[in-house]
Amino acid sequence: MSASSKHVNAVKxxxxxxxxxxxxxxxxxxxxxxxxxEQDIGELSYQSxxxxxxxxxxxxxxxxxxxxxxxxxxxxxxxxxxxxELGFKHFVGVDGSRGMLEQAARSDLYQELKLALxxxxxxxxxxxxxxxxxxxxxxxxxxxxxxxxxxLCNAAKPGGWVCISGGAHSITPSAYEKDLERELKLLxxxxxxxxxxxxxTDRYMEDPYVNPEKEDDRFIKGxxxxxRKCTQ
Length: 232
Description:
Layout: H1 3-17, H2 23-33, H3 37-43, H4 48-59, E1 68-72, H5 78-84, E2 90-95, H6 98-105, E3 110-115, E4 130-136, H7 148-155, E5 156-167, H8 175-189, E6 193-206, E7 219-229
Parallel strand pairs: 1-2, 1-4, 2-3, 4-5
Antiparallel strand pairs: 5-7, 6-7
């Protein structure tokens, strides 16, 4: 087995067990994973970043080169790289992993990078500051808590855009996934934002619980949401 395959297997093991991890344990894993993150994620056919950016492209209206983007749980900077191809130029990144932020800094796309453990520390963004707020794949048990949804909305300007993507990691929605859906809808009911549209995929990523050599249907589904913050 190659070194790359061994590392991907370690990542699969982490994903299988991460629901029981503390935030600190998750950050520690990402710190060590950072140097090979993009290669390993590619081998798992991970599409959260692309799905989020595709959703953004489908519904965003405005001049990409003029807006300021808050990239939450930015990781290695993959989302910013994809958005830069569409003409976006101004990025602020936030992540809980110092190792991931070091990788993001190498992209030379971010005007500012901030270290914050989401859920434990407040999102380091002033209310009503950003034209676009995006979080690709960060929500999940053992990762970004549901409470951060409201912080994403608060960070957007009135009339600003919030894009969120994630995967369905179980056939039956977990308590976390139900809480997330409830919070997304609650912000709509409160008049904080409105759902503009969604984008779905049947190939979000390889299911870490499935042996790809034995199973044909080895991918989990995913969805991206595009919200627009209300102006009043």
